[in-house]
Specification:
There is one protein chain. By secondary structure, this protein is mainly beta. 9% of the residues lie in helices and 37% in strands. A hairpin with a 6-residue loop joins strand 9 and strand 10. It holds the Pfam family Mak_N_cap.
């Protein structure tokens, strides 16, 4: 179960994301640097207990109206080989020491656990409380489930573009579309979707919105 240390990080996650976000193809350009606050998310456990996995929502108030961004991240005690372009930055954790923070869709540990969540083999955890499942996070798949080609979770093809980040799980396998700019669910299904992970985030006036953090597509509808 996730252990959340009540300690310091220098620089903080938001300080690392402030210069990183404007470099992403899905960032909605604003006239000023991002003005970020954390407004939601959840965690997943790494079965090996080595990698921190967090799905964070940040609100950006730099534009004419707020924008909400979904940033899955992993936290590692050493660099992830071959993932230099996915590095958000490094930080000094008050308990764990130096940590390397990565954009999560490029990390095979996060991808494997996201698949496990959709297959009902992983339980979402509260973002800020240790040993606390988060039942507000829902993972739904239509039909009898889905199969992933052997080894695909460890080496997905990642396409990062203005519409979000898509993970192709093997030749002819399913695809995961990671939503980056969050919008409240309308109740309408995404065209061709087999399933999704939904969760909430806080609104400025004190309410809550829900939306699809990740959408699952079959291989024949992944393009």
């Amino acid at each position: 179960m996730s252990i959340i240390h009540k300690t310091t990080m220098s620089p903080t996650k938001l300080e690392l994301l402030t210069p990183w976000l404007p470099q992403q193809p899905w960032y909605a350009a604003a006239r000023r640097p991002p003005e970020l606050s954390r407004v939601g998310g959840f965690r997943l456990d790494d079965p090996e207990g080595e990698v921190g996995i967090e799905f964070m929502v940040v609100r950006d108030d730099a534009g004419d109206r707020p924008a909400w961004y979904h940033v899955p991240m992993t936290y590692r005690a050493a660099p992830l080989e071959g993932a230099e372009r996915a590095l958000i930055g490094t930080t000094e954790h008050g308990v764990l020491g130096q940590r390397w923070i990565y954009d999560g869709p490029y990390d095979p540990v996060l991808v494997a656990q996201l698949i496990a969540l959709l297959q009902g083999r992983a339980e979402p955890q509260a973002q800020s409380e240790s040993h606390t499942p988060d039942p507000s996070v829902t993972a739904e798949v239509t039909g009898s489930g889905f199969d992933v080609p052997a080894g695909a979770a460890g080496a997905p093809a990642v396409a990062n573009g203005p519409d979000g980040t898509r993970l192709l799980l093997g030749d002819g396998g399913p695809a995961l579309q990671v939503t980056r700019v969050l919008r409240p669910e309308s109740g309408a299904e995404s065209t061709g979707a087999r399933g999704h992970v939904s969760a909430g985030w806080r609104l400025p006036e004190g309410g809550e919105a829900r939306g699809r953090y990740v959408v699952l597509y079959d291989g024949d509808t992944a393009s």
